[in-house]
Amino acid sequence: MKGLLMKDLQLMAGQKKTLIMIVIIGVIMSLSFESTAVIAYLTIFASVMALGTLSYDEFDNGYTFLFTLPFSRKTYVLEKYVFVVIWALVFMVVGSVVSLILAAVRGLTADPAEIVVTAVMVLAMALLISAVMIPLRLKYGAEKSRIVLFIIYGLFAVALLGLARLPAFQALGENISGSVSSAGPALIAVPLVLAAALYAVSMLISIRILEKKEF
Amino acid sequence: MLIVKDLKKTYPSFSLDCTLEVPDGRITGLIGQNGAGKTTLFKLILGLIFKDSGSVTVLGKEPSSLSDSDRQRLGVVLAESGFSGYLTVKSVCTILKAFYPDFDERFFMDSCARNGLKPDQQIKEFSTGMKAKLKVISALSHKAEFLLLDEPTSGLDVIARDEVLALIRDYMASNETNSVLISSHISSDLEHLCDDIYMIHEGRIVLHEDTDTLLSDYAVLKVSDEEFENLDKSYLLRKVKEPFGWSCLTDKKAFYVENYPDIVIERSGIDELMQNYIKGESL
Lengths: 215, 283
Fold this sequence. Notes:
The complex is a heterodimer.
Chain A lengths: L1 H12 L2 H17 L4 H22 L3 H5 L6 H33 L6 H54 L1 H17 L5 H24 L3
Helix pairs in contact in A: 2-3, 2-5, 3-5, 3-6, 5-6, 5-8, 6-8
Chain B lengths: L1 E10 L2 E9 L4 E5 L6 H8 L7 E6 L9 H4 L2 E4 L11 H11 L5 H10 L13 H13 L5 E5 L7 H17 L4 E6 L3 H4 L4 E6 L2 E7 H7 L1 E5 L1 H6 L5 E7 L2 E6 L2 H7 L4 E3 L3 H10 L4
Parallel strand pairs in B: 3-7, 3-8, 5-6, 6-7
Antiparallel strand pairs in B: 1-2, 1-4, 8-9, 10-12, 10-13, 11-12
Helix pairs in contact in B: 3-4, 5-6
């Protein structure tokens, strides 16, 4: 695990400039938007970058040699899931701090509750995206998984649009938003727990995919 | 160190069926043309692909049950795959240090410096020769007991090839108990390095012999049709029709030297032996 984490950190170190650019753009963006937007922007971008290490591993037949190094296939999957979470968490914290500072600079009163809610929701999003992406990448590789991803997103969008037209679903939506505002902050944990559960399931699926893969 | 027995792997257009052994402390060579099955064999040994039947025992275990610490005892070079091109020499060093408790950082950095590999350059900017050297240096840098080198000299010019072979030779000189399986499609790479040589063709081992025997007892006879008629063919392995008559492969050179002083017997390298073996028909 240590070696793999080191490898991914080294890959990220090679992208220092991109990372700095992202933070700067985030800061500039949040000067004009609401200050919590920077949390979402940084966390999602960071997790997508962390997922990018899969492409770096795969690049130029890299997997074949990589899997001769001293670690098991299972460890590779575990490390990838851990690395994505760490990376997303780090940038969630960075985003939250930036957001607090910016609010202070602009003379706005920062609402800690709002920041926490945003941070938690965004983390849940990052986990969901990764839970879908990682097994797809492992199964189909960088090129083919992009096509599969389009199809999944497409189906998802069509399903959601279809559902949204149903009167019953609209009523349900209003119900939920009503109960969220009344039940308060305790409920924000629900999406995070759900996302984490899906993330864990996705990890098990990825292990199975990788253990069958031939390089 | 390595025992491969009746190992089978079938693809739609290719099938491998191999038996081979690398005893402790031996350097074993594997020669074959491109597509003969060398890389497939290495991948099976390393557990990168799965066998259909037969057995592979490496360090006393099946590839799939090798633990991390077993794998630390292996040093691997693969022709078509290496560290991600986005890494630098320095980051490869950091990564190897994290993977291998016995990693020798000084050996690694010194060898890189001596071979002109700049520490801060990305691997993807390296020439083919530089990439090959980095792979070999990486495989040699952590006191591996068993080196698996698949075409470490593939695609290199003569000078780069010699430098890569020198790296391997120096390492072997200072670590005599190590075992090595090394493949190449250029047999002169292996002649001076290996104790014994396997020849692989279309997924099958067609010949296995000690290197010394190959070089001393095997030879190619060049004979006219008339000479061929009168030749005792008991010790001929292969014959190839040539414009001048026949090229014949024998593993009893001394017999023909003594009994047929007039015929042309070429001092052949392993490349010619191999060509003759593969192109020729049996008698």
